[in-house]
Amino acid sequence: MKRPLAALVALIPTLALAHVGQDGSAHHGFLSGFTHPFIGLDHMAAMVAVGVWTVLAFRHAGRAQWVAPSAFAGLLLVGGLLAFAGLSVPGVEPMIAASLVVLGLLVATRIRMPAIAGAGVVGAFALFHGLAHGAELPADQAVAALSGMVLGTALLHVSGMALGNFVFSRHVWLPRIAGLGVALFGSALLAF
């Protein structure tokens, strides 16, 4: 029983490795950028959590529920462009893991805050997600790859919003369990 558990624990750091390939994981073109948020569990969990949380926190706020996901997508693009331009910031990977902890806790607790504050929280983390990828972009593919990545991110946000609307808003305990799962995943990434 100990060996299978040890094997699973040993695999935790690889769950966040959406950066695979023989060329150091550079994103080549629109399709590569588009699929990137879907192939790394850390990226997918963060993007879906943003969508779920905004519905849970701002469900009856009309257009305000679009502020945080829009801020995330926009600041992901800004972070990618800054890194592509040469900006290097220490602690990018730990901040991505920390984003999972925070976003998971936001979902689990259904914390409400003004829409602009929510946009600031998720936007700050989005910068780090963007910085993680901007440095990998080949010069001739940067615009296409970032465009694809932003579109993939937006689709995951909308998927999270649909999940929040159709499932999590009807069951009090489901978002708590899912949010805690995302937070624990982020904590595991921080630990490794």
From TrEMBL:
Q: Where is the signal peptide?
A: 1-18
Domain of life the protein comes from: Bacteria
Q: Where are the transmembrane segments?
A: 34-59, 66-85, 91-108, 115-132, 144-166, 173-191
Q: Which UniProt keywords apply?
A: Membrane, Signal, Transmembrane, Transmembrane helix
The record's InterPro entries line, in alphabetical order, gives: HupE_UreJ (IPR007038)
Report the protein name in the record.
Answer: Urease accessory protein UreJ
- Taxonomic source organism: Candidatus Dactylopiibacterium carminicum
